[in-house]
Amino acid sequence: MRKQRHEEYDECPIEAAMDIIGGKWKPSILFRLADGTKRFSQLQRLLKTITQRTLTQQLRDLERDHMISRRIYPEVPPRVEYSLTERGRSLEPVLALLFRWGVENVLETKARAAPKAPAPKAPARPRSAVDPSSAGRPVKSRAAARPRATNKGR
Predict the structure, then answer these.
(1) 3-class secondary-structure state, position 48
(2) What are the tens digits of pLDDT across the range 11-50?
(3) What pLDDT score was predicted for residue 46?
(4) Is the pTM of this model over 0.70?
(5) Coil/strand/helix, residue 60
(6) What percent of the chain has pLDDT over 90?
(7) What's the rounded mean pLDDT across residues 54-59?
(8) Does the N-terminal peptide bond of residue 77 adopt cis geometry, omega within 30 degrees of 0?
(9) Nearest in space to 78 (alpha carbons), one of 127, 21, 39, 30
(10) Are the C-beta atoms of residues 32 and 38 closer than 8 Å to each other?
(11) Smallest Cα–Cα separation from 92: which of 30, 138, 2, 12?
């Protein structure tokens, strides 16, 4: 459950907004739902590292704050879909600006600052049964060097 910092936000509308949409996952969930209605499993796939429990909690919080709507279809197995409400849609321009800012100021900066990858190494030569000290002659194992015992005398 989200923590509400104040009962009323007379002085700081930013705190009021961040209380509803702040956190690691809520903006990403809202951004994904801006593309259209999604099922729980679709959101989980799109948000790769989110846990099921966290996604469930974040969706409940967003639904409680009237940012998304949840529609349950009476089927077996039940199908649940999430979509943005009008209130949630009002954030689309803000999310689009955050997306563009992230591309320009984080991803492109990271790409420019990243060191160039080292050239790939040549593949290792397979080990052979040639000992470098034997001038290229095959190395015999001790078992191969011993004479074989025969059963002729029995």
Answers:
(1) coil
(2) 888 888 999 999 999 999 999 999 999 999 999 999 999 9
(3) 96
(4) no
(5) helix
(6) 55
(7) 97
(8) yes
(9) 39
(10) yes
(11) 30
**Closest by Cα among 84, 91, 64 to 1:** 64
Helix, strand, coil percentages for the chain (3-state, nearest 5): 45, 10, 45
Hunting for tokens 């705190």 — which residue is that? 15
Q: Which two tokens stand for residue 21?
A: 């949409």
Average pLDDT, the chain: 82
* pLDDT for residue 107: 86
Other beta carbons less than 10 A from residue 57's beta carbon? 14
pLDDT in tens, 62-93: 999 999 999 999 999 889 999 999 999 999 99
Q: Which residue has the tokens 């011993």?
A: 146
The structure tokens listed for 81 are 């879909």
Complete DSSP assignment for 84-149: E-HHHHTTHHHHHHHHHHHIIIIIHHHHHHSPPPPPPPPPPPPP-SB-GGGTTPBPPPHHHHSPPP
Cα distances (Å, whole numbers) of residue 60 to 2, 26, 104, 123, 152: 10, 11, 32, 52, 86
